[in-house]
Recover the amino acids of this structure.
């Protein structure tokens, strides 16, 4: 379940428009392929206004969907459209909750309104940074952390592991303080809460002193044999502590009428350094279409600039179908080869959708609409209940380090037919490889599996669902996607 299958014109509605909630509000995600119509978009000025709003709506059972910046590929921010139930439905933005306090021992408490693009420079001014980020700084901090957003590094964890405490508003309008010190189990439950355990109004994180990194970008030639190619990729993963492997790609050959593996890859890897003479990593970053990947170069910068780009807007303006799957690193060579072989075998099915048009500048100079790009990254596991890299069901000899495969199919902008076809391709991977490789999908990329699969990959899911009921007795934070993928049966009637 991803997009609503109605072709809508590109959004005219400004994402940041502030509505009193009186008129209907159409919500779109970042690439305008996921949409819904809420009763209104509510942007409280402060926490007490939000509490009043939530208390007013509790007896009315109004649907409530807190959002960050809608920078996802799935249905986490899809509101329950007004016409689908007899309830009202609001999108909530905490953008005004911008207080920030820095304490001793480098801990920082701040409101739910902070986006990474503002938060990181503010921390930097105070001599601080966080342990890791994803590859862009477009997300809201809560929006990113609560879905398990990650960067790369075998000793680097996802953002949720930076959290030491949360202040959460439940559906009745009551505040819950959850901290690592007093309620460590609950913090593991709430750190990845995907919008369903209440509205997170404030977070306390562990920050660290500023550090410099050297980033190296290097183009390498891979084997054209897929098995050998993925052994090479696994070897790169073993060699480098913190590496992002961009490629291989699959390109549609117009003469042969088939997808051909382009085994060239770009390694982007980071090393700690004392050199502080330059700050030039933000200029060109081979990451998520925010810079070129077809040349070798090095740069030096503060960690936050070296690992995450600050896009002016969004770096890429086409459509994109993307999943990202995490699995124990030990399976990388085998799983990587299986995924690529399956993707390549879809040539015949892709023929009707092939489009010669160049979509736009991208990682290799340009993207064609029929390219399939794979990125491999690494993440250290953790104990958060719904973490895609949770360590609860690993084999006894597993290292607790995960590899991720990110697959992107790229149709031209507004080409919904191809976008939906690529979503169909993406949906076939979990049934095919999920159990074999213990695969866990990224919460805010394309997800298609059901509760049975969820309970296998999240052994603590039932406890989490019990907690969800306590925080949200009337199913106000739930949408169809959450009800189905987590088996929240008591809310299912709303979507029948
Ligand atoms: C181009 C692109 C690049 C990306 N790169 C990476 C990457 O490098 N690494 C990676 O791991 N991911 C990556 N992602 C995924 C992205 O990090 C996640 O989708 C992230 O969740 C988006 O953050 P957001 O602020 O837009 O959150 P949203 O999508 O708006 O919301 C995400 C979830 O958070 C909940 N939420 C938001 N605010 C609150 C709140 N105050 N209280 C309670 N719940 C809340 C929402 O209900 C929803 O469930 C990328 C996505 C895109 C589109």
């Amino acid at each position: 379940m991803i997009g609503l299958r109605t072709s809508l014109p590109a959004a005219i509605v400004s994402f940041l428009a502030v509505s009193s909630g009186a008129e209907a509000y159409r919500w779109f995600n970042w690439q305008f392929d996921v949409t819904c119509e809420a009763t209104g978009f509510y942007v409280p000025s402060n926490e007490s206004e939000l509490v009043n709003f939530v208390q007013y709506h509790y007896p009315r059972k109004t649907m409530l969907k807190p959002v960050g910046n809608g920078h996802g590929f799935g249905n986490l921010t899809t509101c329950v459209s007004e016409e689908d139930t007899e309830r009202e439905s609001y999108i909530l933005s905490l953008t005004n909750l911008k207080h920030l306090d820095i304490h001793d021992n480098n801990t920082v408490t701040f409101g739910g309104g902070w986006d990474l693009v503002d938060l990181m420079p503010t921390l930097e001014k105070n001599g601080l940074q966080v342990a890791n980020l994803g590859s862009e700084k477009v997300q809201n901090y809560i929006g990113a952390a609560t879905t398990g957003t990650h960067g790369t590094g075998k000793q680097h964890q996802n953002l949720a592991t930076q959290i030491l405490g949360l202040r959460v508003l439940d559906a009745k309008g009551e505040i819950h303080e959850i901290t690592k010190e007093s309620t460590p189990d609950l913090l593991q439950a709430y750190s990845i809460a995907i919008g369903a355990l209440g509205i997170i109004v404030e977070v306390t994180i562990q920050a660290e002193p500023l550090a410099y990194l050297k980033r190296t970008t290097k183009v390498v030639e891979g084997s054209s044999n897929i098995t050998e190619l993925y052994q090479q990729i696994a070897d790169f993963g073993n060699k480098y502590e913190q590496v992002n492997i961009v490629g291989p790609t699959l390109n549609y050959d117009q003469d042969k009428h088939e997808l051909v593996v382009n085994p060239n890859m770009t390694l982007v890897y980071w090393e700690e350094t004392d050199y502080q003479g330059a700050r030039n990593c933000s200029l060109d970053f081979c990451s998520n279409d925010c810079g070129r990947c077809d040349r070798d170069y090095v740069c030096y910068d503060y960690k936050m600039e070296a690992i995450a780009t600050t896009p002016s807007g969004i770096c890429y303006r086409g459509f994109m179908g993307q999943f990202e799957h995490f699995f124990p690193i030990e399976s990388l060579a085998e799983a990587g080869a299986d995924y690529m072989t399956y993707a390549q075998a879809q040539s015949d099915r892709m023929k009707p959708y092939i489009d010669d048009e160049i979509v736009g500048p991208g990682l290799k100079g340009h993207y064609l609409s029929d390219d399939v790009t794979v990125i491999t990254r690494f993440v250290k596991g953790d104990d958060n209940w719904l973490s895609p890299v949770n360590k609860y069901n690993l084999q006894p000899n597993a290292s607790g380090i995960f590899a991720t495969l990110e697959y992107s199919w790229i149709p031209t902008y507004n080409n919904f037919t191809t976008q939906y076809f690529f979503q169909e391709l993406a949906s076939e991977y979990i049934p095919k490889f999920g159990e074999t490789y213990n695969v866990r999908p990224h919460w805010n990329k394309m997800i298609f599996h059901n509760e049975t699969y969820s309970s296998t990959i999240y052994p603590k899911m039932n406890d989490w669902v019990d907690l969800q009921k306590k925080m949200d007795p009337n199913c106000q934070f739930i949408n169809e996607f959450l009800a189905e993928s987590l088996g929240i049966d008591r809310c299912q009637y709303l979507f029948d």
Q: What stands out?
A: The first strand starts at residue 25 and ends at 28. DSSP finds 14 helices and 23 strands in the chain. The chain has a mean pLDDT of 91. The pocket of flavin-adenine dinucleotide is lined by residues 30, 65-72, 76-77, 94, 112, 134-136, 139-140, 142-144, 146-147, 149-150, 194-195, 199-200, 288, 442, 444 (CB under 6 Å).
